[in-house]
Amino acid sequence: MKRLSLASSLAAAAFVLSAGTALAAPFQCPVRGGDLVFGQEANVNSLDQMTSSTISTRNIAMNIYESLMTRDENNRPILELAESMEESGDGLTYTFRLRQGITFHNGKPMTSADIVASFNRYNRIGLQRSTLDNVDRWEAPDARTFVIRMKQVQPTFIEALSSFSVPIVVIPSEHENDERQQLRTVGTGPFRLLEFVPGSHARLGRFDGYQPNTAFEQRTGFGGYRVACLDTVTFRIVTEASARVAGLETGALQAVEDVPTRSLESLRRNSAITILPLENWWIQIALPNTANPPTDNLAFRRAVQAALGMEDIMDAATDGNYRLNVGFQYPGRPAYTDAGRETYNINNPTRARALLRESGYRNEPIVILTNRDYPPMYNAALVMQQQLRAVGINANLRVVDWPTSVQMSQRVNSNEWHFFHSGWGTQPALGALATMQFLVAPGANYRPRDDKDDPDVLAAWNDMNNLRDPAARQEAFARMQRLVLERAYAYPFGALTKVQAVRANVQGYVPFRIPRFSNVWMTR
Amino acid sequence: MFGVLARRLASAVPVLVIVSLITFGLMRLIPGDPAAAIAGIAATPAQIEQLRQDLGLDEPLLGQLLHYYQGLLRGDLGRSLLLGKGVFAATMERLPVTIGLSLYALVFTLLFGITAGIIAALRQNTFIDQAAMMFAMIGISVPNFFLGLLMIILFAVHLGWLPSGGYVPFGEDPLGWLESTTMPAFSLALLQAGLLARITRSSMLEVLRQDYIRTARAKGLPQRRVILKHALANALIPIVTVVGIIVSLLLSGAVVTEALFSIPGMGQLLTQAVLNRDYPMVQGGLLLVTVFLVLVNITVDTLYAVLDPRVRHE
């Protein structure tokens, strides 16, 4: 059995990440106390993190719950409730040693029986329970050890297990049989739930029995050395952007997400407020429907690719809050590659017209499917339509709401649309593997005829999943990205920046995939 | 009186059946996948498919209708797809919030609407009349959403008198409830107050021209008594009719106001349910709101009988 002391290696990673403060002692709250109110844009219907994939649930629940493993600031897997993890030489067994002294918010000490119960519940009703499809069984040989035995070797299992999309959060064993969305909210995280009124707010309080993870010295990503400095954090649902801004200005809210661009100017002038851009929030993207003409024609899809100017599209989509970005990962991330960059941001009408002639396009109406629920998607579609018209493509918008556009885009061999506008947020943040699943069946977003994958793309996907050497898996990802871009199965426009803001007395708040309130304090 | 009540209650049954059928049919006619809506933008196709199976959304339409009516006969409105809890329980958590807000708005409506209407009628064709009717027109013309935003900027951001949003339950802190609902109630009330002012004015003008008012004045009755006892009492019948309609308008208007002021009421609940295609919640929630409105209308009809002896005798 080879021992992969993930904790130490990843603690080293954390060392590199926080080089500036690495020699300092573990984080200590400069100020303890205070009540922070966060203005959240989307409603929360449930705090059952095992059965929800919504960002709004995750925003709150990930301050309450913890998992065996999670992701660090750069999205690498790290240990959270486990202090070590060993992978057997044959790759079929993962043995986790649990951290000592962890207690739930109800005061009960956490043991491996709770991990077993959490896995059992997740396997029964967890939304991403396919993560455990290749797991033969899990067991708890003693109170501090948890073992996962695989059916087959799966080199990417740890990546899947540490995913924050729908994480396997650890709950007390007595909650194992709680039904879907009825989970009693008791976790091991730095904050505990005090009150939850759906549609209004969730109030969390500092969990005084919390044990920070001493393998780290600072917070990193979803884990690391976390300390609750604030007495309470209230997530108040404020769906109206103007009301969020007003709340921030009056001090009724100390932090908000998604500040509208029209308010940025005045907020920047306000010394009581700090603007915090969150780069790489999502990849703005359009996907062709390759089941039908003329988007089944590669020359036509390339003509579209050649016609697109990404600056204009992203500028309109994001009100200027964007970065140009090749492909499906972000620069600086471990899996980033610019493979296929020659297909990006061509913006060459002459070439587009030549490719159109080559494709035999005869002015058939082209339907761009988009929605108004997410304004960046609508705005991107609007500019795309104009750019396509400029090269002679008879492009038309079809505007529906988000659920309808998803339903239409997922119909096999649909002839109702040619391009579908979307935004990929969580999956690119999770890494290449999570992102590229959007491009293989079932439900490949470019909608191949009869849902049959392009065999070359599928081969690259299989290599991404099955090769044991991480470098070979990365090479497979680069190959898959190149194939997808060269065959114009997707048009990633760029990376959207989401703007958050806090009152100036809120310290230590760093925008991330969720609003993290550990290691955050308020000066008086 | 009891006859009126019994007749009205009996006529409510077909109304409720029709409403339940229409909401069931309309929700199924709207395109859109509830699983995609509930799973959110971050979900993968596999997660959406998993959710679709978990929620049992693959059942044929007729089976769904049958289950719905079987549930109704048992008094079970179903389970919200979005919240994972019973529709009745979810509604009972939110309906009191909206009713409280609407009643508060109704107080503003009656206070401003009837007062302005009476004053305008008594001072017909004077500056006061014109000012009151201009106020009524502003109320009718300004969207409550816009008015709410203006109020937030003035009273919350600049003056700091009232909170910019949020809700405090009455049982928890009555003063906090007043603070958190005053702006929403006022912005909700202004349109209806304008409407009521105009109706009160015309109703009062009509009554003031009646012979019995002239007789009352000729008998030397004090003006106050003539206005309140003889004129207003008779002008009240059309006003009461409008108040019944106003209550339903306040309830439906609360949708926008609740979103703006972050108030967890029925409006927000039903909006979310519609946007997320939460069929059971929309069907059950609307049915319960309809029951409430039917009760309001029955109350109004009963009030006719109280106000007008001719209705009682009929």
CATH topology of the domain at 94-307 in chain B: MetI-like fold
Query: Looking at this structure, what is the CATH superfamily of the largest domain in chain A?
Result: Periplasmic binding protein-like II
Could you estimate the helical fraction of the residues of chain B in percent? over 70%
Radius of gyration of chain A: 24 Å
Which structural category do the helix and sheet elements of chain A fall into? alpha+beta
Largest interface: A-B, 61 and 52 residues
Structure description:
- The complex is a heterodimer of chains A (524) and B (314).
- Chain A is of the alpha+beta class and 524 residues long.
- Chain A has 2 domains: 23-238 and 504-522, Periplasmic binding protein-like II (D-Maltodextrin-Binding Protein, domain 2); 281-498, Dipeptide-binding Protein, Domain 3 (Dipeptide-binding Protein, domain 3, Roll).
- Chain A is built from 15 helices and 21 strands.
- In chain A, helix 14 (455-466) packs antiparallel against helix 15.
- Chain B has 314 residues and is an all-alpha fold.
- Chain B has a domain at 94-307: Orthogonal Bundle (MetI-like fold), CATH 1.10.3720.
- Chain B is 79% helix and 0% strand.
- Chain B has helices spanning 2-29, 34-39, 45-54, 61-73, 87-122, 127-141, 144-158, 174-208, 211-218, 223-261, 266-275, 279-307, 309-313.
- The N and C termini of chain B lie close together (9 Å).
- At the A-B interface, helix 2, helix 5 and helix 11 of A face helix 2, helix 3, helix 7, helix 10 and helix 11 of B.
